[in-house]
Amino acid sequence: MKIADQYIKLVEWSEEDQCYIGSSPGFIGACCHGKDEAKVYKQLCGIVEEWIEIHQQEGLPMPESITGKAFSGKFVVRVGQDLHKALVIKAAQSGESLNHHCTTALQNSILQQS
Predict the structure, then answer these.
(1) What is the mean pLDDT of the segment spanning 83-96?
(2) Which of 9, 38, 91, 104 is the most exposed place for a label (fewest CB within 10 A)?
(3) Which parts of 1-114 fold into alpha helices (H)?
(4) Is position 74 within any domain?
Protein backbone atom coordinates (compact mmCIF):
# COMPACT_ATOMS: atom_id res chain seq x y z
CA MET A 1 0.00 0.00 0.00
CA LYS A 2 1.26 3.46 -0.92
CA ILE A 3 1.18 6.28 1.63
CA ALA A 4 -1.36 8.09 -0.58
CA ASP A 5 -3.76 5.16 -0.18
CA GLN A 6 -4.12 6.09 3.50
CA TYR A 7 -5.85 9.37 2.67
CA ILE A 8 -9.45 9.86 1.62
CA LYS A 9 -9.86 11.36 -1.84
CA LEU A 10 -13.21 13.00 -2.31
CA VAL A 11 -14.72 14.26 -5.57
CA GLU A 12 -18.05 16.05 -5.21
CA TRP A 13 -20.32 17.92 -7.59
CA SER A 14 -20.58 21.63 -6.77
CA GLU A 15 -23.86 23.23 -7.79
CA GLU A 16 -22.37 26.64 -7.15
CA ASP A 17 -19.37 26.06 -9.43
CA GLN A 18 -21.15 23.69 -11.84
CA CYS A 19 -18.22 21.27 -11.80
CA TYR A 20 -16.61 18.51 -9.76
CA ILE A 21 -14.33 19.59 -6.90
CA GLY A 22 -11.57 17.36 -5.52
CA SER A 23 -10.22 17.40 -1.97
CA SER A 24 -8.58 15.17 0.61
CA PRO A 25 -10.34 15.90 3.92
CA GLY A 26 -7.90 16.39 6.76
CA PHE A 27 -5.01 16.80 4.32
CA ILE A 28 -5.81 19.11 1.40
CA GLY A 29 -8.84 21.32 0.89
CA ALA A 30 -10.48 21.90 -2.48
CA CYS A 31 -7.53 21.69 -4.84
CA CYS A 32 -8.77 20.76 -8.30
CA HIS A 33 -11.92 20.95 -10.37
CA GLY A 34 -13.39 20.02 -13.74
CA LYS A 35 -16.41 18.75 -15.65
CA ASP A 36 -15.22 15.11 -15.81
CA GLU A 37 -15.41 13.29 -12.46
CA ALA A 38 -12.81 10.64 -13.38
CA LYS A 39 -10.32 13.26 -14.60
CA VAL A 40 -10.76 15.29 -11.40
CA TYR A 41 -10.15 12.14 -9.35
CA LYS A 42 -7.00 11.33 -11.30
CA GLN A 43 -5.76 14.91 -10.87
CA LEU A 44 -6.55 14.76 -7.15
CA CYS A 45 -4.56 11.54 -6.76
CA GLY A 46 -1.57 13.23 -8.39
CA ILE A 47 -1.88 16.26 -6.09
CA VAL A 48 -2.00 14.03 -2.99
CA GLU A 49 1.16 12.24 -4.18
CA GLU A 50 2.88 15.61 -4.71
CA TRP A 51 1.91 16.84 -1.25
CA ILE A 52 3.27 13.64 0.31
CA GLU A 53 6.57 14.14 -1.53
CA ILE A 54 6.77 17.74 -0.31
CA HIS A 55 6.07 16.67 3.27
CA GLN A 56 8.77 14.01 3.06
CA GLN A 57 11.34 16.28 1.42
CA GLU A 58 10.81 19.07 3.93
CA GLY A 59 10.49 16.77 6.95
CA LEU A 60 6.95 17.91 7.66
CA PRO A 61 4.72 15.63 9.73
CA MET A 62 2.01 13.83 7.83
CA PRO A 63 -1.58 14.45 8.92
CA GLU A 64 -3.21 11.55 10.72
CA SER A 65 -5.15 9.31 8.36
CA ILE A 66 -8.65 8.09 9.25
CA THR A 67 -8.49 5.21 6.76
CA GLY A 68 -8.56 1.92 8.65
CA LYS A 69 -8.98 3.72 11.97
CA ALA A 70 -11.39 2.10 14.42
CA PHE A 71 -14.13 4.34 15.79
CA SER A 72 -15.83 3.72 19.14
CA GLY A 73 -19.18 5.12 18.05
CA LYS A 74 -19.10 7.63 20.91
CA PHE A 75 -18.22 11.31 20.95
CA VAL A 76 -19.14 14.23 23.15
CA VAL A 77 -20.93 17.24 21.71
CA ARG A 78 -21.31 20.34 23.82
CA VAL A 79 -24.41 22.39 23.10
CA GLY A 80 -25.95 25.36 24.84
CA GLN A 81 -28.54 24.86 27.56
CA ASP A 82 -31.40 26.04 25.34
CA LEU A 83 -30.55 23.59 22.56
CA HIS A 84 -30.10 20.78 25.08
CA LYS A 85 -33.57 21.50 26.50
CA ALA A 86 -35.13 21.71 23.02
CA LEU A 87 -33.58 18.37 22.03
CA VAL A 88 -34.84 16.68 25.20
CA ILE A 89 -38.35 18.03 24.55
CA LYS A 90 -38.32 16.91 20.88
CA ALA A 91 -37.04 13.47 21.89
CA ALA A 92 -39.75 13.12 24.52
CA GLN A 93 -42.43 14.22 22.06
CA SER A 94 -41.20 11.54 19.65
CA GLY A 95 -41.08 8.90 22.38
CA GLU A 96 -37.34 8.46 21.83
CA SER A 97 -34.28 8.66 24.01
CA LEU A 98 -32.18 11.78 23.60
CA ASN A 99 -29.38 9.65 22.15
CA HIS A 100 -31.64 8.01 19.55
CA HIS A 101 -33.24 11.33 18.62
CA CYS A 102 -29.84 13.02 18.10
CA THR A 103 -28.46 10.03 16.17
CA THR A 104 -31.44 10.09 13.82
CA ALA A 105 -31.12 13.86 13.34
CA LEU A 106 -27.42 13.51 12.50
CA GLN A 107 -28.08 10.64 10.08
CA ASN A 108 -30.82 12.62 8.33
CA SER A 109 -28.53 15.64 8.08
CA ILE A 110 -25.78 13.57 6.42
CA LEU A 111 -28.22 11.84 4.05
CA GLN A 112 -29.67 15.21 2.95
CA GLN A 113 -26.18 16.38 1.96
CA SER A 114 -25.59 13.33 -0.25
Answers:
(1) 90
(2) 38
(3) 37-58, 81-94, 98-113
(4) no
- Of the candidates 11, 14, 13, the residue with the CA atom closest to the CA atom of residue 22: 11
**Whole-Å CA distances, 72 to 23, 76, 107:** 26, 12, 17
Q: For residue 96, is it within any domain?
A: yes
Please indicate, yes or no, whether residues 53 and 92 belong to a single structural domain of this protein: no
pTM (predicted TM-score): 0.68
Distances (CA, A) of 27 to 31, 43, 45, 75, 101: 11, 15, 12, 22, 32
* 8 A C-beta contact, residue 80 and residue 31: no
84 vs 90: CA distance, rounded Å: 10
Evaluate the CA torsion angle 63, 53, 69, 10 in order and state its sign.
positive
Rounded CA gap, 44 and 38, in Å? 10
**Which of 32-41, 65-74, 80-89, 93-102 ranks highest by mean pLDDT?**
32-41
Tens of pLDDT, residues 57-66 = 999 999 988 8
